[in-house]
Amino acid sequence: MSGIYIHFPFCKQACHYCDFHFSTSLHKKEAMLNALKKEIKLRKSEFKDEVVETIYFGGGTPSLLSMDELRFLLDEVYENYNIVPSPEITLEANPDDLSSIKINDLYKSPVNRLSIGIQSFFEEDLKLMNRAHNAEEASRCIKEAQDAGFENISIDLIYGIPGMSNERWIQNIEKTLAFQIPHISSYALTVEPRTALEKLIEKGRIAPVDDELAHQHFLSLVTILKENNFVHYELSNFGKPGFFSKNNTAYWLGKKYIGIGPSAHSYDGNHRGWNIANNPKYIKALSNNELPLEIETLSKKDRYNEYIMTGLRTIWGVSTERVVCDFGMLSKQHLLKQAEKYIKEGLLEIVTDKATEVLRTTRKGKFLCDGIASDLFLLNLEK
Ligand code: SF4
Q: How many domains does one find in the chain?
């Protein structure tokens, strides 16, 4: 299984916390579409033996694409790649772009999964983050998407927003549950370097992010969603059975993907690639039939560390058998020795899953899993 990710690097306005690659000036949109189309074609040989099961439009804000533009890119994908009969095709969408006409057109298109950037159902949170939509649009677009017939809907919610009480956070979760949405991605608000949020906090115009409050929000989220039959299948992702994101699951399980567009990343099992994060340079390179792509060969140590990092974030955990098979017995010994103290503290556990020994985080360890993973990393391993 493999996937194609298409990065559409434009947004209407900049959210204060965002450090993704995007531009708010849309005048290069047409040139960008032609460059994306060119890259889709130029890279087809990388997947000549692959069958593509997922196509994901991310960004930026790909819901700014018109239906014709979306079709223009999808046609090029279908023209050049081997696609399964019923692929998962996701479009990241912002509520303010989802008019009822657009939703109905999307429902008639090959897009079969919407990932909607709600972030909060409350006006004060949306304003603080400088989101382009308002609270009314957040609720309206979900209802209209469901009325149109979309079942596979995911929404993004942000917790740990300064000024957001635990009560307001719980109301956000309850509003989500009332819509009976089958998938939720939820992230703590983080203050990335050089973002507007960082500057506003420095100037005292927004209160600093409170890690303790964010932890409380996370625990409320995990508890309430579990009571409502969601599976917490990745640190930030919760799904009803049958509605896990196939695209993201493939990333976490180490499947191959091609990332199209400026700043998009690619992975083939042994190499990681990333495109230049600059729209004019990206467009210029493609107009010269060049791929603005840098590639790094992953060492065994890199692959081991990556497996531990992603494994501990998911319900599938880290298979000790796979560690022996791919990285050797010494790596397993290192892993279990380093894991010992976390097992004693109840943050990690060893379970048997389908006759395989698996190391995974406990409910208590989930919030800390990135820190725990880095303690299990290998510092040296033969290339
Ligand atoms: S819409 Fe998404 S990509 Fe664009 S600025 Fe906001 S968070 Fe970033």
A: 2
Distances (CA, A) of 85 to 50, 88, 136, 295, 326: 14, 10, 37, 31, 33
Interatomic CA distance for residues 244 and 231, integer angstroms: 9
pLDDT in tens, 1-46: 799 999 999 999 999 999 999 999 999 999 999 999 999 999 999 9
Give the CATH number, domain containing residue 185: 3.20.20.70
pLDDT tens digit sequence for 297-346? 999 999 999 999 999 999 999 999 999 999 999 999 999 999 999 999 99
If asked whether residues 208 and 320 sit together in one domain, one would say no
Is residue 14 in contact with ligand 1, taking CB distance under 6 Å? yes
The finding on whether 239 has its CB within 6 A of some atom of ligand 1 is no
Q: How far apart are CA 207 and CA 204, in angstroms?
A: 6
The verdict on residue 90 lying in a domain is yes
Same domain as 234, residue 167? yes
**Residues 328, 335: contact at Cβ < 8 Å?**
no
Distance CA 79, CA 123 (A): 43
Q: Answer yes or no: are the C-beta atoms of 156 and 117 closer than 8 Å.
A: yes
Identify whether residues 234 and 328 lie together within a single domain: no
CB of 60 closer than 6 angstroms to any ligand 1 atom: yes
Backbone dihedral angles phi then psi of residue 59, each to the nearest 5 degrees: -175, -155
- Banded model confidence at residue 381, pLDDT cuts 50, 70, 90: low
Q: From the CB of 22, is ligand 1 less than 6 Å away?
A: yes
163 and 242 in one domain?
A: yes
Instruction: Domain of residue 333: give its range.
Output: 300-376
In short, whether 59's Cβ falls inside 6 Å of ligand 1 is yes
Measured from the Cα of 13, ligand 1's closest atom is 5
In-domain check, residue 276: no
Q: Tell whether 241 and 102 lie within a shared domain.
A: yes
Q: Hey, whose CA ends up nearest to atom 3 of ligand 1?
A: 60
Structural element, H or E, at residue 88: strand 83-93
CA distance 75 to 71: 6
> What distance in Å separates the CA atoms of residue 38 and residue 32, rounded to the nearest whole number?
10
